[in-house]
Amino acid sequence: MAQTTENIEASHIHLDSSFVVVFSKSKGMRRFTLAELRDYELEPDEFYWAYLQRVAAQNREFLEEAGLEHSDIDELLAREVRPHCHVRSKGVFIAINSFNELPSQESGDMEYAHVWVDERRIICVWHEPLEVFRSLVESFNKRVPPESTAEFWARLVLAIAERAEDMVEELQDRIDHLEDVVLETGDHPWESELARVRRFATIVRRSMLAFLDTIRNFEIENFSWVNRVNKRRVREAGDRALRIAEEMDAIRERAEIVHDQIMFKRSETTNRSMLMMAAIAVVFLPLSFITGLLGINVAGIPGSHDPVAFTVVTALLVLIGLVLFMIVRWFKMF
């Protein structure tokens, strides 16, 4: 039998490489390499968590030695698989998605984890390190490690839901700020920021609905190794996912309202400007007509040889302008 490692703390579990952690009620957590696990025989109260990087060369050999079917191995090692839950004779394959953080770039891509769960093992295959596993490992420091694969899975889906709730709070802060800018200050925020919030809300909603469908499919299966407590935890994660999807709908509706307010204020500003130009035209077009008429270069223009005619015409133009201005003000054109 290979020499196993001593008991480890959760802080010593590094998520940047492949490893195996054996959980035991009596011996705590112990870290193994994939090679060490081949020569280790699990005791009745033990199960293991295999954390595998998808591109590692030894993954297929390890999974074949673990007794998985070739179709399950192909799905576990696939680059991308749509979120779903497939029940097999020996366990269940689950493709699940999660965000590392609220997307700040235009891509907003989700990261995927492929998980195999049965009574004695839970195998997670990842392409990019997921922060949800880091938060899950940190929870081992705060409370006792999981006692079964079902409890490990329940904690994992709850951790994904908690990270999604953090994203909801950040998106709510963004839309609150946009509402304050539009409704209180009257300024026009960047439309790109509003479009980004709406897009991210759509992505998160779609992700949570797929997540909900996946864990609901797991929940309805009657696995003998999943007790009532862990079923309730999985159900709670599903309820959180549904609530998050509803929150995303609310955020998208609020974003629509903000967009409508922006369009209304922009239209109001445009209409006010057009009305101002119309009022100016009402005043100055008649004056321009009179001056243009008096400026034609033909004989017979009245007062062309009178030295006081210019003063009289100017005074008349000022008087006409004042009258027109009072008429415009009377009709409240501005």
TrEMBL record:
The keyword Transmembrane applies. GO terms for molecular function: cobalt ion binding; cobalt ion transmembrane transporter activity; magnesium ion binding; magnesium ion transmembrane transporter activity. Keywords: Cell inner membrane, Cell membrane, Coiled coil, Ion transport, Membrane, Transmembrane, Transmembrane helix, Transport, Zinc. InterPro entries: CorA_cytoplasmic_dom, CorA_TM1_TM2, MgTranspt_CorA/ZnTranspt_ZntB. Belongs to the CorA metal ion transporter (MIT) (TC 1.A.35) family. SUPFAM superfamilies: CorA soluble domain-like, Magnesium transport protein CorA, transmembrane region. The keyword Cell membrane applies. Signal peptide: none annotated. This is Zinc transporter. It holds the Pfam family CorA. GO terms for cellular component: plasma membrane. The lineage of its organism: Bacteria, Pseudomonadati, Pseudomonadota, Alphaproteobacteria, Hyphomicrobiales. It is found in: Cell membrane. It is a multi-pass membrane protein. The chain crosses the membrane at residues 274-296, 308-331. Residues 154-181 form a coiled coil. It comes from Pseudovibrio denitrificans.
